[in-house]
Structures are given as structure tokens and as C-alpha cells.
Amino acid sequence: MSSLFITFEGGEGSGKSTQIRRLAATLQGQGRDVLITREPGGTPEAEAIRSLLVSGDVARWTAKSEALLNYAAREQHLDQVIRPALAGGKTVLCDRFMDSTRAYQGYAGGCDLGFIDALEKAVVGPARPGLTLIFDIDPAIGLARARSRGDAQAEDRYERKGLVFHEKLREGFLDILRKEPKRCRLVDASRGIDAVADDVWSIVKAAV
């Protein structure tokens, strides 16, 4: 079987992490060798950067600083995990990737999109996902879901940025979808877990 690179994108509380596990189980049942990973993170160095980004004071970084930190982590992740896995024929499922930087730091945070374009070209290059699932949900509902989960590690820095930020974030993801309809697919994340899982599989099975 050929390798696949599928990314899961969306706002807070959209259920990506649950659905990535569901999809992995389905693909493994079909005989695929599946790797689940996440961003920021995926290597010890990138996980250390993650802790700087997702916790602490809301205003601790500028959006440009966040973009640079994300891409430093992404370089390590691609070099040490993603590219080797794809070269080995694995199916890589990644919880967030380049589109999250564009949406969070660019559309919602105000970082210049041209600057993010340059980072993406330099770091990601041709290693772009073949399929991106964008989980869409009303930000108010998503934030309520995220807060109800509780988080022992207090990875809630972005949740605390406020509803206006998350509304811009949602529009950013939807604009990415409009601009790249061949790569990106919309998933209505407001429904129950099983209904969303069925939708995800119907999209992915067309790609495999």
C-alpha cells in the first residue's frame, strides 16, 4: 500500500483527537501501518516547544513569534518523524499541521500571511498533506466542549484568547478550505461522534 499523509484541522473542541483515533483503527483494520502524531509536537524537542505555546499567559508571544516557534517544531517533526514514516510506506495521521499556523497565527493572530507562506515553502516544501480534514464547529460550542474536558496540563492558552479570536480562526479555516478544495474537505463537527466518524471515513476511503 502506498503512503498517505492526512491532517486533521479545526478549532478548539472540534473533536479532532477522538476522530483521528477512530480513523486509525479503521485503517489498521484494512491492513495499513498507521502512525498518529500531533503538532506542535511529535518529537521531544517539538514537544518542549509545544509547552511554550499552549500554556502560560495569553499575551506571552506575538503571533510572529508563535509562527516561528511552530515552524521550528515542524522542521524537527518533518525531519525526524513524518518524512521517514512516509518513505517507509506508513499512513501518517497528524493532529494539526501547517494550516493551523496559517489559521491561528495568520488569520486570527494577525501575522502577515506572506511571512507564513515563506516559512511553509522553506520548511514543508513538497511534504504537504494529500488530504486535510477541516472540522468545523460554532466557536462558542467548541470552546464550551473544550472547557468541559478539563486539562491537567493546563494546555488552555488559546482557549483563553476569547470568542472574537476563535471566530476569526473559524473563518480562517473556512478560507483555507475555499482556496484549496482539492486537498481540503469539510467535516461538520457539531454532530455526534459516530456520525462524524462515518463522514470522515466516507471522505478518506475515496482517497485510499
Name the features:
5 strands, about 210 residues, alpha/beta, about 55% helix, five-stranded parallel β-sheet
Describe the structure.
The chain has a five-stranded parallel β-sheet, with helices on both faces. About 40% of the residues are buried. It contains eight helices and five strands. It is an alpha/beta fold and about 210 residues long. The protein starts with a strand and ends with a helix.
Terminal Cα span: 9 Å
* Number of helical stretches of at least 4 residues: 8
Average pLDDT across residues? 95
Largest sheet properties = 5 strands, parallel
Strands ordered across the widest β-sheet: 2-3-1-4-5
Residues in β-strands, percent? 5-15%
Estimate the helix proportion, in percent. Answer: 40-55%
C-alpha-based Rg, rounded: 16 Å
Oligomer: single chain
Q: What structural category arises from helix and sheet content?
A: alpha/beta
Give helix and strand order, one letter per element, not per position: EHEHHEHHEHHEH
- Shape annotation: globular
Compute the number of strand runs. Answer: 5
- Uncertain regions spanning at least 5 consecutive residues: none
Secondary-structure topology with pairs:
Blueprint: E1 4-10, H1 16-29, E2 34-38, H2 44-54, H3 63-87, E3 91-95, H4 98-108, H5 113-123, E4 131-136, H6 139-149, H7 163-179, E5 184-188, H8 193-205
Parallel strand pairs: 1-3, 1-4, 2-3, 4-5
Helix pairs in contact: 1-8, 2-3, 3-4, 3-5, 4-5, 4-7
